[in-house]
Amino acid sequence: MSSKLTMEAAQREMRKRALMNRWGELEDEENDQDGSPDSDVEFRCRKERWFSDAFNFLIKLPEEVHIWCGYEEIMWPLLEPFCSYFECNEEGLSVKVLWKRICAELQRCTQCIVQHHKAQKMYSTEFEQDTVKPLLTVLKTLDEERVADHLKDINLRAEKKELNTENDYAEVVSVLFEVLMYPDLLDDQVIANAFVLFLIEVENSHELTLAGYQQYPGVYALLFLRKTEARAIGFRLAGFLGKLRNASELEPIQPLLNKCIHFLDNSLSDNITLRPRIQYEREPVWLGIKSLIGFLESSAFEEGIVERYPIFLSVVLNHVSDDSTKDFAHAVDCLRLLFEVLGCKLWLKTTFSPSVMRNTLLGQCFHTRIEKHHKAIFDLFQPFLQSLEALEDGEFERQRRHFLYFLLHQVSHSSNFSPLMKKKARQVAISIIRRGYRMDPPCPPFECAHM
């Protein structure tokens, strides 16, 4: 029996090499074509024969042999015919038969999942977008349908108490791995909803943990979901992964960040898609951004968000200037994080001057009479000034002078501030003055002694 299996494996390997050699010849021929109609027709016929032979070969592989695991060299070019997948409803077509088999294998094998997505990434980077976009759109739709159906099936079995830990372990791990490794899937509304239910079920039955040596970008995407439980799980899992160190580690969730930042700016455009997209809400998006910043090293925050999205600081300041919405408190928190995480780098990376930002904050203090908002802005003054200390260009002293004048003179003489806030202003002023004495070297505000 073993010798027979060995012989079959050897025969498969020979056929695999023959197909790969034929494909290599087709690639060479395509590069050398003279453009004549006859040669073009002949080339297309040979290519179609290769596709037909490759389909038949992969479809007839033994069940225990996974296509993406052992025959990815053949499967990569064989993705090309998938461009016409939805053009025919006939289930017996080779492309549909092969996809059905691949779906079954992707449900239980993380290596297949990696190769499958790696191939799509190769297509998106190696070929011109105008040429490959229709194919990638089809593959994206197929993947979303596949993952959504798989999650629905798992959730249904879990609801009926039919999910067996031992027998279904590979399925649970595979779908968890795929969504957390490829967070673009969570842009699909059906997947996002089903995955949240799945995640909560898994968390309740087996507390999830992740290995710290592997990055799972989908964990950070969970921070932006509507469901509080999903965000809590995402926050806990992100703690296992450690902080993201640079912009490249943020790259997998850049599409999500781009959408969320433009959503807060009210400039997110609607794209027509075959499947429903996730609908964002302002509160979870703000919470997600604040949580994400907490998991970023300063260089990742600087390069991956502040530099990449110059609009981000504008969005934050615009919402600090508008106390009519719930966005105000979140924007203030984000501004504090910008001061604290980036320090002086904030001023080196933005076109906003300290004076413009100071005027924005002080202007908002006079615009509103809400104590809570006054306190939130007063609490920004100290981190604001500390972010200027390292510049050593006189800006720190200049802004400190303005803040002290505001806190000790303008607040105390304005009816816009309550007695409690006037007391708070004096406390903040004293804190700023003390900071000057504790600096190295000390830099007390002697020029403000008359205040």
From TrEMBL:
Domain Helicase Sen1 N-terminal: 99-416
Pfam families (UniProt xref): SEN1_N
InterPro entries in the cross-refs: Helicase_Sen1_N
Protein name: Helicase Sen1 N-terminal domain-containing protein
Classification of source organism: Eukaryota, Viridiplantae, Streptophyta, Embryophyta, Tracheophyta
